Structure formats: C-alpha cells, structure tokens
Amino acid sequence: CFSLFVLLLYLPFNDGFVYRSLVHHPQKILRNNNHCALKDTNHNNNNNEPNNSNNNMVSSNAIYFDISVAGTPIGRLLFHLANPSPLPQHAENVIRLATGARRSIEPLTHYVGCTFDFTPAHVEDGQGRYRWSHTCKGRGRNAMGRQNEPISDAPNQLASCTHSCFGGQYYGETYKDDDDDADDPGVLLTVPIQGPGQGSSRFSIVRVKESPQEWRERLLMNSGVIGRLDPSSLETLHTMARQRIGPPTVTASGAA
Fold first, then answer.
1. pLDDT for the residue numbered 23
2. pTM over 0.85, yes/no
3. Which residues contact 118 (CB under 8 A, 6 or more apart)?
4. Rounded to 5 degrees, what angle do the CA atoms 199, 218, 234 make?
5. Is residue 25's pLDDT more than 60?
6. Which residue in 36, 80, 62, 51 sits closest to 172, CA to CA?
7. Of 134, 118, 128, which is closest to residue 214 (Cα–Cα)?
8. 78 beta partners
9. In sequence order, what E strands does 46-127 have?
C-alpha cells in the first residue's frame, strides 16, 4: 500500500516535469538518413503557411522535369527529395512550383516553359569553362507565402543543417565523397540560401561527384541541398550539358 501511495504521488510530479520541460525547451532535433531537421514549436514562418506536419515533412518524395532542346525532347530529370526535409520551406516551394499547385490563382507559379542558363560556362566542352552546374531561375514567383517575397526557413533550422567546407558553408543534406552507393551519380538539387536568387523560384542541378577534386563541395557553397538525381536520369543530364544547340527548356514537371 505504501508503494502504491508513493507511485501515485510521483506520477503527477513526473508528468508536470515533462510538461514544463516541453514548454521551456520546445526545440527538438530530428535526425533521419544522415541529415537533420530542427523542429521549433514556437517558430512561425514568415510565409504564414505551416509545413504539412510538425516534423518537417514535405508533400512529395520526388519531383521530375521533362527537358527539351530546340523543341526536341531529350529526357526526364528525376530527383529524390529528403523527407522529412532539413529545409522544408525551400523544398516545399520547389515542389509546389513543379506541380503548379497555385497556378490557377497565381499564373506564374510554375516551371513549365522555363529555361536553364545557357552560356559557354554551362556547356561541357572540355575547354575548362564548365561550371558543373545548371541553373533554372523560374519566373521569380514563389508558391509558398506571398509570391513576390523571399521565403526562408527558421534561423535555427538552418543552423542545425549547416555544413562547413573550404572556408565556406552549405545547408541541408550532407554530401559525402565516400558514399558507398556506387550507382549514386552524386548530382544534387540545390536552392540558393545566400546571395543571388535566395528565397526565390531559382534552383540548380550540381554535378558534385563528377566535378574535379578541387571543386566538389565548393560547388555547394551558400546553397541548400534538398534532393539527389536518380541514376536513371544521368544520361539526360549529360545530353543537356554537352549539347550546343540552345537553352534546355522544362516542358513538363510534377511530383513523381
């Protein structure tokens, strides 16, 4: 009887202790598949649009872009997204632009018809000018929050997924040169976190693994990694990078 009495006294105190801990320490670090995502129950994002759930889930695990050059289809680029995402606001924005989720009310919030930058630096011609990445600026309209305002993830969200490299830093998923998966092409889907285009519809496809050793993670500086290219799409990317006809164009995009 005495033991039962002690237990009954302990449980309310313990529940209260747990409750007070959650109230005064609302941030919880969630880790999954070698990337981290920080959940802050007190943070209200500046877009007034919450994530799908309180653990940084995004609405799709993969997105695709069908690419053509001068009206001729060259293939599909399929990207697998981190989910939960270390950068949920940025990732969800790209997903919604790819699916055209707000196109009926905001006609410019989609990628169909958008082109990738096409200069000598974006053609892999063996002349040493190639940047090992391809950038699509979109239409400068966001599908999260107000379309004309930059989006951002919470500062502590970014801090939890910041990776140092060669005197700089990048965010989101971690890239590892020693990945065991030999089939992984090491091509990453990124968004600008700092600098030109930050918080906008802009995204880049970065060929980290295939780049010279002195480039590698340096290519990711000031960007956030939100996904990886599927191995089946590498040939399409090579065609896109090595042709000299004209700018690659998105003819269709969506969730996969």
1. 31
2. no
3. 246, 247, 248
4. 80
5. no
6. 36
7. 128
8. 64
9. 62-69, 72-81
Q: How many CA atoms lie within 13 Å of 93's alpha carbon, on the beta-carbon side?
A: 33
Out of 28-32, 89-93, 208-212, 233-237, pick the least confident. 28-32
d(CA 239, CA 1): 78
Q: How many Cα atoms occupy the beta-carbon half-sphere of 96 within 13 Å?
A: 27
Query: With left for phi above 0 and alpha for psi between -120 and 50, is residue 49 left, alpha or beta?
Result: beta
pLDDT of residue 145: 87
SS3 35: strand
The closest alpha carbon to 136, from 197, 226, 63, belongs to: 197
pLDDT tens digits for 162-198? 999 888 999 999 988 765 577 899 999 999 999 999 9
Helix ranges (DSSP H) in the chain: 2-24, 88-99, 155-160, 234-242
- CA atoms of 133 and 209, how far apart (whole Å): 11
- pLDDT per position as a tens digit, 85-131: 999 999 999 999 999 999 999 999 999 999 999 999 999 988 888 99
The type of residue at 101 is A
Residue type, 234: L
Amino acid code (one letter) for 224 = G
Strands (E), the chain: 27-32, 35-40, 62-69, 72-81, 133-136, 162-165, 168-172, 187-192, 203-207, 223-229, 249-255
